[in-house]
Amino acid sequence: MSEVESILIRRDEAGIATLTLNRPAARNALSVALMTEMETHLADIAKDRSVRVVVLGANGPAFCAGHDLKEMRALQSREEVAEVFALCSRVMRAVVRLPQPVIAKVHAMATAAGCQLVASCDLAYAAEGAKFATPGVNIGLFCSTPMVALSRAVGRKQAMEMLLSGHPINAGTAERWGLVNHVVAPESLDAEVASMARLIASKSSYTLKLGKEAFYRQLEMGLDDAYAHASQVMTENMLAADAAEGIDAFLDKRPPVWRGC
């Protein structure tokens, strides 16, 4: 399959892996084939020590329209439907559990599982015209799986407003609610995301992996357990080669040379 025909395009440069959803005619709806490709690529990236950060973008008029509803309606059994949602959940968990930070680059509408994908990423940048919605309620299908990521990215009242109304929110509202980090002019989106990706890629890959994993683990703990876990992580981090190099480089007023361990 040529790159032009690929439904998911991967490009690597200077420690940054860019994954681009490429079903523009279908508004990048998450078909089984596309989610399978995503799962495979994310598994490969997780093992690739040359990749320090991932950028997730899309081609066409939408970032992602959620599940492929035509494909879903053609399924014949409960087991087939359940497997599609299980596959989608695996993809979303893979984004969260990926050792490398993931930045969503949202140029246009992200709805339902597309909004879930944005919420699952570690960082998100949006163009001024982008919109976000969980509109399943409008077609009798509550966005229950998108709710998992959304409710962990924004406040309860904001999440419920989106889920119960189905109304889209604009990029500025998404920024205020915490669904995205920054909103930029459409012509500046690529440059802004690339700048942040390069900044993250300049850090120790070992430290990024350790910190990302600790962040998500402590979120689901009580306060005492969270501090205990974070203290263990800090101890491990402090004794790592990259921490020693980073501290020495800081004291010597020179750039660090990371070893990734």
Question: How would you describe this structure to a colleague?
Answer:
By secondary structure, the chain is α/β, with parallel strands linked by helices. It folds into 2 domains: 8-201, 2-enoyl-CoA Hydratase, Chain A, domain 1, CATH 3.90.226; 205-252, Lyase 2-enoyl-coa Hydratase, Chain  A, domain 2 (Orthogonal Bundle). Helix content is 50%, strand content 16%. The chain has 11 helices and 10 strands. The strands form 2 sheets. A 6-stranded mixed beta sheet has the order 1-2-3-5-7-10, sandwiched between helices. A 4-stranded mixed beta sheet has the order 4-6-8-9. A hairpin with a 2-residue loop joins β1 and β2. The longest helix is centred in the middle third of the chain and has 20 residues, at 78-97. The model has no long low-confidence stretch (mean pLDDT 96). Keywords: Fatty acid metabolism, Lipid metabolism, Transit peptide. This is Enoyl-CoA hydratase domain-containing protein 3, mitochondrial.
Determine Rg (CA atoms, Å).
19 Å
Largest sheet: 6 strands, mixed
What is the helix/strand order? EEHEEHHEEHEEHHEHEHHHH
- How helical, in percent, are the residues? 40-55%
Identify the CATH homologous superfamily of the largest domain: 2-enoyl-CoA Hydratase, Chain A, domain 1
CATH topology of the largest domain: 2-enoyl-CoA Hydratase, Chain A, domain 1
Strand content: 15-25%
The chain-level structural class is alpha/beta
Cα separation of the termini: 37 Å
Please tell me the overall pLDDT.
96
Supply the CATH architecture of the largest domain. Alpha-Beta Complex
What does the overall shape look like?
globular
Instruction: Tally the structural domains.
Output: 2
Q: Which spans of ≥5 residues are poorly predicted at pLDDT below 50?
A: none
CATH class category label of the largest domain: Alpha Beta
